Amino acid sequence: MEHAPKAIDVTNDVEMRTFNFFTMGIDGHPLGLHLDMAIPTILNNADEEQQKDWLPKAANREFIATYAQTEMGHGTNLKKLETTATYDPKTQEFVLNSPTITSTKWWPGNLGKSSNYAVVMAQLYTQGKCHGAHPFFVQLRDLNTHKPLKGITVGDIGPKFGMNTVDNGFLQFDHVRTPRRSMFMKHAKVLPDGRYVPPVHDKLNYSAMVFIRAAIVSGMAYHLLVTSTIAVRYSAIRRQGEITPGAGEVKVLDYQTQQHRIFPQLARGLAFRLSGQYIMKLYTQTMDDIRNGDISAVPDLHALSCGLKAVTTHHAALGLEQCRMACGGHGYSQASGFPLHYSVAVGACTYEGENMVMLLQTARHLMKIAKAIRAGQSPKSNKIVDYLFHKGPPKCLIDQAYDTNYRNVLESFEHLARRQTLEVYDKLVQLQQQGRNYEQAWNDCAVELCKATRAHVRTFLARTFVEEIDKISDLSIKSVLQDLLQLYLYYEVTECATGLLEDGFMTGQQHKYAKKKIYEALEKIRPNAVSIVDSFDFQDRELHSVLGRRDGNVYENLLKWAQSSPLNKTDVLPFHHKYLGKMMEEARQRSKI
Ligand SMILES: CCCCCCCC/C=C\CCCCC/C=C/C(=O)SCCNC(=O)CCNC(=O)[C@H](O)C(C)(C)COP(=O)(O)OP(=O)(O)OC[C@H]1O[C@@H](n2cnc3c(N)ncnc32)[C@H](O)[C@@H]1OP(=O)(O)O
Ligand SMILES: Cc1cc2nc3c(=O)[nH]c(=O)nc-3n(C[C@H](O)[C@H](O)[C@H](O)COP(=O)(O)OP(=O)(O)OC[C@H]3O[C@@H](n4cnc5c(N)ncnc54)[C@H](O)[C@@H]3O)c2cc1C
Fold first, then answer.
1. Does residue 416 contact residue 455 with C-beta atoms inside 8 Å?
2. Which residues of the chain are in CATH 1.20.140.10 domains?
3. Is the ipTM value over 0.95, yes or no?
4. Which class in CATH covers the domain with range 209-376+415-430+449-532?
5. 107 C-alpha to ligand 2 centroid (Å)
6. 78 lines ligand 1 (CB under 6 A)
7. Residues belonging to the active site
8. Which residue numbers delimit the Acyl-CoA oxidase/dehydrogenase middle domain (predicted)?
């Protein structure tokens, strides 16, 4: 063959991600930030000339870059980042500096040891004026020796809750000079003489964060589907106790409590998967629009991605823990895979914007809509929020037989989101009328604002789930997924029942009806549960779980797994006689005296 095909095309994003994923596992690797944040930043924030220079090298892995934004003192409040980039027109360079301990960059993944470049967020100063945080593409280490360049102090931040295969790092600059063109110049610019040219929208510099927030939604679907696969498979193997006395021990999956613990996680995983696809498409579309000069969708994308990120990561964290507990004692062993999956998944509650902060970002958007509604304005043909403008039915109708395509359930979610949004808006206005300033009033309403976001996101997730299942033409697949949809919708109704009952919209009887529909769905899902999780086609190496093995050979492999522990290399530990053995021997001698 003239040209033998290369095993992996490193410049092909999908191939690279798949390769990395299967060879390096799920807890991160040295190229994570390069692929997930640095390249997206180059794509969306570098101008044409910069892209031509940086992108092929980045894709070809001639360097490894990270995303260095968070500092020891500030992660959430980007306005207060302390790292400075001061333009010097004489040399046409920026001077990067870390003026305080708290300005030390802290957390960037792969900064500790792997990266030799970084996207650095720094306060841009030119002509004596600060223009806020802007991204710069900065070389940190020598390309040959990999040693830090002059003026740069860099290292690893040490072991973490999880993701310890990622070298999260710290970074300080001591008046480090970098060329003017190392500033990302697609949106904002600094001209050679130091004049600042502002961007068309001052948050376009944040697009890499928006990308990851959108990606996290599918990531959380993955974690939930993986861990429910483990829990379902193990529960179909594990036998304990009897349902009918004398009829023999049952698989624990036959217990209704077990199904109620695990199946909703499966259903949520699917819901997140479908909304994850939606938000990714919205992201791609919005980035294309921005390239064509249309920035109108930026606030909608930001609001939806923040809300989805916060809700899906929170529910994934809760769901993973349910799956672990559903596997009893063996669930607590590392052999279950849960410690790995859990410690990776919960990081997403924090990174890319702490969840409460993200909920409040979406709430800002909702408050603007509430203001427009109270001002009597009409909706603006925005599929995601228009329902807030409409009047729904005055009473909940979820128990009506004619609920085609769950319209009445969706209307219940819409009702709650609308009520919560308008009530908290009215409270905000009222507090201001009573003399509180906007920020104080906002803080006084923060918990209710978060509830409004959760209700809005629940509505979005549910609507997307219903719409996507409706599109399926294969009736046998559709029927199985409809059982999961039924479970999802009524489970969510019971999860937000307090809000639906609070204003008398839903009756106690209807709440009971929702519970009945849940139990009915659990029963329908049970016979298909193992086939459903098998259909995801996860490889054993992805699950990292003895309990979740596809072949179901749990007990034999659990024993093998334990026997392969380093502690079992010898029957007697080499230092046994020096410490525990000695202690016991001495105690025995003393008791003889
Ligand atoms: C196979 C399984 C694997 C699963 C993995 C899942 C997939 C994940 C993939 C990879 C893993 C990556 C590893 C993790 C890497 C982590 C990286 C990081 O954490 S990077 C650092 C992230 N940092 C943050 O997120 C900081 C959070 N803070 C902010 O974003 C902002 O400061 C803010 C809180 C949003 C506030 O913004 P700002 O400071 O500018 O002030 P405001 O006055 O509040 O805002 C002014 C207006 O601007 C709007 N705004 C803010 N941000 C945006 C935006 N991005 N886009 C559009 N608009 C924005 C804001 O809403 C205000 O609007 P108005 O209300 O005034 O109109
Ligand atoms: C695993 C991991 C990987 C990371 N990777 C990177 C990376 O690659 N690059 C990078 O730059 N950063 C990275 N980070 C940093 C991460 O983005 C920040 O930690 C995150 O954005 C939270 O910011 P913080 O640490 O300042 O939290 P804080 O803001 O200090 O949060 C502490 C508490 O204060 C609350 N709070 C803060 N502000 C408000 C507010 N306005 N209203 C209400 N409550 C508020 C929060 O809700 C939270 O409960 C990573 C973090 C982790 C854990």
1. yes
2. 209-376+415-430+449-532
3. yes
4. mainly alpha
5. 10
6. yes
7. 352
8. 67-176
